[in-house]
Design brief:
Order of helices and strands: EHEEEEEEHHHEHEEHEEEEHEHEEHH
CATH class of the largest domain: Alpha Beta
CATH superfamily of the largest domain: ATP-grasp fold, B domain
Number of domains: 3
Number of strands: 17
Largest sheet: 6 strands, antiparallel
Helix content: 25-40%
Number of helices: 10
Strand content: 25-35%
Length: 328
């Protein structure tokens, strides 16, 4: 009997559009001969499974089951494909933990921690991983951007503290009214805003996952943005060049890989994650920017590019992720 796998898509945030793009890749590449696959769309309006005729069946949230023609379908595992809340911030993970259903992503605690950018860099810094100086602003306590000038060196990045895909992110080159506008823009996406010092250097990103108990670092990608930084347009609308594998010295490549595996271990990660780094050539230092615990799987996404260079098909990769969560 084939294991029944639910893959969840959608979500409650602006990142849902990325989730739906990833869903297309999942549906094309998950091994249907090996698994029974059910796509579950999780939205603010409800959780649904759509039949071939277009009818929607609501998920029973008491046990995460669906009823099809008087048969109750329960699931052996869940492949999490939701970017943003509630799939990347630990909420769904906690729900599945209570139901004792295994899933392919990091656990509840790691997902919640890494979704909060400020807490992520605090833990990384305390573990000997280089990070940028930053401060965290809370909407209910925030009064004026002037206080930032005293504490940070410009340029700075201003971004929502919780979330991904670079939505609501800005670069501010000097203390000015632009800082206030950037903070206001970020507060539209989140009630916490991270302001961090810009680090000059080359941007690298690398996927890391675990298969058969072994932590595997994928080939490194260098991201060269055509915009001022790697924003939403650069990520998803072609305004960047992504060079995979990155053209770097072996020593730098090893530094990125070693740090990526260290991050995976420090944060007790599971499944596939993607870590963004900046390498400052003058200092010869690598800085961790952030961790994505549900990295994009669309055709424009970086992890599929890296898997191709490694020589893995997406079918092999998704099978490895599912088998790891089923048997560990």
């Amino acid at each position: 009997m084939k294991p029944k796998i639910a893959f969840v898509t959608g979500g409650f945030s602006g990142e849902a559009e990325i989730s739906y793009k990833s869903a297309i890749t999942f549906e094309k590449n998950i091994d249907k001969e090996r698994y029974e696959l059910y796509k579950i769309d999780i939205t603010i309006d409800g959780w649904f499974y759509e039949l071939k005729n277009g009818d929607k069946i609501e998920v029973n949230k008491n046990d995460f089951s669906i009823l099809i023609e008087d048969e109750t379908i329960t699931f052996d595992a869940v492949l999490i494909g939701i970017h943003g809340t509630p799939g990347e911030d630990g909420k769904l993970q906690g729900y599945f933990d209570m139901l004792h259903i295994p899933y392919t992503s990091c656990d509840c605690a790691t997902s919640a921690l890494t979704f909060n950018k400020r807490y992520t860099v605090a833990v990384a810094g305390a573990s000997g991983i280089n990070v940028s100086n930053s401060i965290l602003l809370f909407k209910q306590n925030f009064q004026s951007p002037d206080e930032l000038v005293r504490n940070l060196k410009f340029p700075v990045f201003v971004k929502p503290n919780n979330g991904g895909s670079s939505i609501g992110m800005s670069k501010v080159n000097a203390p000015s009214e632009e800082l206030g506008k950037a903070i206001e823009k970020a507060f539209k996406e989140d009630d916490q805003v991270l302001v961090e010092e810009f680090i000059e250097g080359r941007e690298f990103t690398i996927g890391v996952f675990k298969a058969k108990g072994e932590i595997i670092a994928l080939p490194i990608t260098e991201v060269i943005s055509k915009n001022d930084f790697f924003d939403f347009e650069a990520k998803y609308h072609g305004a960047s060049n992504e060079v995979t594998p990155a053209k770097i010295d072996d020593s730098v490549s090893q530094l990125v890989r070693d740090n990526a595996i260290k991050v995976y271990r420090v944060f007790n990660c599971k499944g596939i994650i993607r870590i963004d780094f900046i390498y400052n050539e003058k200092e010869q230092k690598l800085y961790m920017l952030e961790i994505n615990t549900v990295p994009g799987q669309s055709e424009a996404s970086i992890v599929p590019q890296q898997l191709k260079i490694l020589g893995w098909s997406l079918k092999e990769f998704y099978t490895a992720l599912i088998e790891e969560c089923l048997h560990n």
